[in-house]
Specification:
It is elongated and about 55 Å long. Helix content is 63%, strand content 3%. It has a two-stranded antiparallel ribbon. α2 runs antiparallel to α3. It is mainly α. It has one domain. The termini are far apart. A hairpin with a 2-residue loop joins β1 and β2.
Length: 115
């Protein structure tokens, strides 16, 4: 399976988890996209350094070809999947903890600032 195929599968999988499994709808929020813009800026900076200096080298047969800051566009897809899954998981865990707290169950999790 190619790097490109895995990147698309990762994004689709994370969107399903966010929208259908956790139901946090993280990707529908403006604040997510503002935060993601900051994250992707630094991701491109680091990708540019690592791939521009040949610390990381990609097999050209396994990627689509287009690059941004020396890195294949697939890296942006993987970065999106990683960040989105982390934030959606965090929001889902905090939501469950807050629900348990409202029901009077003891929990060691702090209150969530996400809704």
């Amino acid at each position: 399976m190619s790097y490109s195929t895995l990147a698309v599968i990762a994004v689709v999988g994370v969107l399903v988890v966010d929208l259908a499994v956790y139901r946090t709808r993280m990707v529908t929020r403006r604040v997510f996209w503002v935060a993601y813009a900051i994250i992707v800026t630094f991701q491109l900076l680091m990708n540019g350094v690592l791939t521009g200096r040949d610390v990381v080298v990609y097999d050209e047969d396994t990627i689509w070809g287009p690059r941004i800051a020396y890195a294949p566009v697939e890296d942006l897809l993987f970065g999106f999947a990683m960040v989105t899954l982390t934030l959606a998981s965090w929001a889902a865990v905090n939501r469950r903890a807050n629900t348990a707290r409202r029901r009077g169950l003891d929990t060691d999790t702090r209150r969530s600032s996400t809704r």
